[in-house]
Amino acid sequence: MKKLLVLALVLLLAVGSLFAAAEKEAADGVVELDMYHYHNLADDTATGQWNEIMAAFEVSYPNITLNIEYQNNEPFHNKLQAMAVAKQLPDVVYLWPKKRTGYVTGAGLIKDLVPFLGDKVNEFSPAAMTPQGPNGEIYEVPQQVTATHVVFTNNKILDELGLTYPKTLDEMLAQGPKLAAAGYIPIAMDNGDGWQMQSCFLSALTERAGGMDWYNDVLVGKASFSDTEFVNALNVIKVLSDNDMFSPGINQAPYGNALSDFENGKAAYLIDGGWRVQSLVEELPEALVPYVTLEAFPDIPNQVGQSQSTAVVAGTGFGMNANLEGTKADAAWDWIWFYSGEEGANIRVGHGMIPSYINADMGSQHPLLAKLVDFLNTKPAGYVIDAVVDGEGMGVLHPGIQEMMFGNKTPQAVADEFEAWVAANDSTRNP
Amino acid sequence: MDFREKRRSYWYLVGPAVLIYSLVIIFPVVVSFVLGFTKWSGFGSPVFVGIKNYITMMKDPVFLYDLRNNLLIVGTSVFGQIPLGFVLAYILYRKMVKFGNFFESMIFLPITISAVVVAIMWNRIFFGNSGMFTSLMRMITGDQRWIMAISESKSGAIFPVLFVILWMYTGLYMIIYLANLQKISPSVLEAAIIDGASEGQILGRIILPSMINVLFTTAIFAISGSLKSFDLIFAMTNGGPAHYTEVVAIYMYINTFKYYKYGFGSAVSIMIIILSVGLITILNKFVRRIERKYE
Question: Which residue in A has a C-alpha nearest to residue B256's C-alpha?
């Protein structure tokens, strides 16, 4: 019994000293924030940029200490959901603007940042400040606006073969045999994971085939993914696949193979997202930089949408726990603003990113970055499908596209299956 | 020691193990069973939906195709790894080849490597635009667009995965059989040889009857392991392309943790248990019949 009493006393003292330490920290004016960040520490490019932002933040805000937990890919979302279920979200969380992290933003667990932003909303590109909640809420301040469809073009190869960037799908198809005969891959692309074809190509083609009015009607159920417009968009992929325009084994290739082929001068075109500029800035041979241009896919048959259109989505950023108040909420906002506002934006520009903050210093940008800025400023844009349709629907669409490319399904069958899922399950159609 | 003391000792000794087993095995299975009759996304209260999850599952062509892949893995394990493991163990035990220790180590080696490493290694060999096997074949055929077509075939895409499963796990069974073969008394074999027994008679009359229980145990491992196979395939192909190499455990993982359908995912996990127990029961009956033959 005596031993038990002694043990209890020791435990009580230990817990008491912990609380005392916490109070002391608060009295010192240092605010500690728990942060959950989506980041792969093995990614040298992203880690270099992250470390620079962190170092600058520590200098500007010595009174804020960030306790960071890193995760990436599915484990990030699994843990975030577990935290949400347990209602134990950290103070600051990395979030997506639309449906990807809808399981926390839609559950009222994240604070609306509109009151914090105020007039600063005007310091961001309009695409970044599109509402993220049903009542105009902004849950995270997007660090960038992303074009998910860019046709990176190696003009050195085109010049060598006497070709120019095609204006139509037929012209592009006609280039295929010439490029293949010269030993080049016409269009380098990976689709082993399934999302690349949808996000980096089909999304742009969908607007191109049907136009924004039709696209908006589809999302609310006034039109359908079974319509000829969407089938036409899918058919472009089918025709390119049937004519061996894509990388061989495209549906087996992990993400990254196509980029290597393009950087090594093995492919005339690379279809990928605008984010690939970051890798190209670091990895593309210096001599090749002047030859690389950023284009949108040529016009397609029966086109209703805008010529040269791409697909854009507001980027990711940080949001704060809905329960934060007072000093902690102010400290969390200091971090969010630092990350997505001027300071963070200027650092990101140096690493090949286009920030959503429009007053960033773009003076020292790499030539490829300048081309991406020009691309974003001049190309019209539609939606990215996986940003406007629930994630589970991609489990129907992605394999459907792959089966279509293997010749096991027609574009109409893929469109019908996708429409059936969206009509029955999608949260926009079935609120 | 009276009866009450005996019973108390029994509970002291067995109680902690029963408690831990109940907490980590029985409780999750029961919760999973109950959740299998609900619709639950992780938020709010689960909504009772009866057997709807099971009906949806059985009507889903993806689940049925995954089940087909699982059964092929069971087949590869039971009719591939076990016989091959036994034959290799028998060859080594009867010293039919030289350098037995070297072969034993080489065949066992794959099982000592992490499944994820094995998966990534074979993925790099077989798949993609710059895989080792692909590059070699392009060099041989001169066709720069050559790819391993079987990996894009709906019925055939699983076969490279089956090959890797056979390559990886056969060594494990071989070691188990070898250890059990070494338990057979050499004097029995010597007596059989003196009596003029042929190699086939030694195998059929002495060795196989002695190994029935081991074969049965390894078959249970093979069946249960095959039905819950996940890591190797997930890391090697992620179930793709187009669900062609997907198995039920990946289907469960995606539905549960990617689409947040905890009720549906629980129903799938219960289905894995039902299939596992069903196949092991059939195997049990088959083995009892064989045992009776040797009694």
Answer: A78
The residues in A 260-289 lying below 8 A from B, measured between CB atoms, are 260-261
For residues A242 and A255, state if they share a domain.
Answer: yes
Identify whether residues A52 and A124 lie together within a single domain. Answer: yes
A69-111 confidence digits (pLDDT tens): 999 877 888 889 888 888 889 999 999 987 778 889 888 899 9
Using DSSP bridges, classify how beta strands A381-382 and A310-314 pair: parallel, antiparallel or unpaired: parallel
Does A399 lie in the same domain as A261? yes
**Exposed, middle or buried: residue A191 (CB in 10 Å: 0-12, 13-18, 19+)?**
buried
Q: A306 and A168 in one domain? A: yes
pLDDT value at A15 more than 90: no
Contact A148, A273 (CB under 8 A): yes
Q: Average pLDDT for residues A314-331, to the nearest whole number? A: 94
Instruction: Give B128 to chain A, closest Cα distance, Å.
Output: 4
Task: Among B148, B241, B254, select the one facing A402 at the smallest CB separation.
Answer: B241
Question: How distant is the Cα of B241 from the closest Cα of chain A, in angstroms?
Answer: 6
Residue A22 in this model has a pLDDT that exceeds 50: no
Helix H or strand E segment including A64: strand A64-71
Find which of A252, A264, A270, A396 to mutate to test the B interface (most B CBs within 10 Å of its CB): A252
Cβ contact A251–B241 (<8 Å): yes
Average pLDDT of chain B is: 91
Q: What is the DSSP letter of A382?
A: E
Q: Say how many CB pairs under 8 Å bridge A and B.
A: 92
The SS3 of residue A146 is strand
Residue A427 sits at the chain B interface (C-beta within 8 Å): no
Interface membership of A193 toward B (CB under 8 Å): yes
pLDDT of A367 above 60: yes
pLDDT at A364 over 70: no
Is A252 a member of any domain?
yes
pLDDT one-digit tens code per residue, B12-57: 999 999 999 999 999 999 999 999 999 998 777 899 999 999 999 9
Residues of B in contact with A253 (CB under 8 A): 127-129
CA-based nearest distance B145→chain A, Å: 5
pLDDT per residue over B76-132, tens digit each? 999 999 999 999 999 999 888 889 899 999 999 999 999 999 999 998 888 766 778
User: How far is the C-alpha of A307 from the C-alpha of A296, rounded, in Å?
Assistant: 9
Could you give the CA distance from residue A174 to residue A158 in angstroms, rounded to a whole number?
13
Q: Which chain B residues are closer than 8 Å to A250 by Cβ?
A: 129
A107 in contact with B at a CB cutoff of 8 Å? yes
Percent of chain A with pLDDT strictly greater than 70: 93
Burial code (b: 16+ CB inside 10 Å, e: under 16) for B156-176 equals ebbebbbebbbebbbbbbbbb
Place of tokens 């969206």: A422
Overall domain count for chain A = 2
Contacts of A247 in chain B (CB under 8 A): 129
Domain range spanning residue B251? 51-294
**Mean pLDDT of the region B218-226:** 90
Helix (H, G, I), strand (E, B) or coil at A340: helix
The pLDDT of residue A431 is: 76
The ipTM assigned to this model is: 0.85
Domain that holds residue A61: 30-144+315-340
- Rounded CA-CA distance B86/A404 in Å is 43
Residue in A74, A399, A400 closest to B258 by CB:
A74
Any idea what the CATH number is for the domain that residue B80 is in?
1.10.3720.10
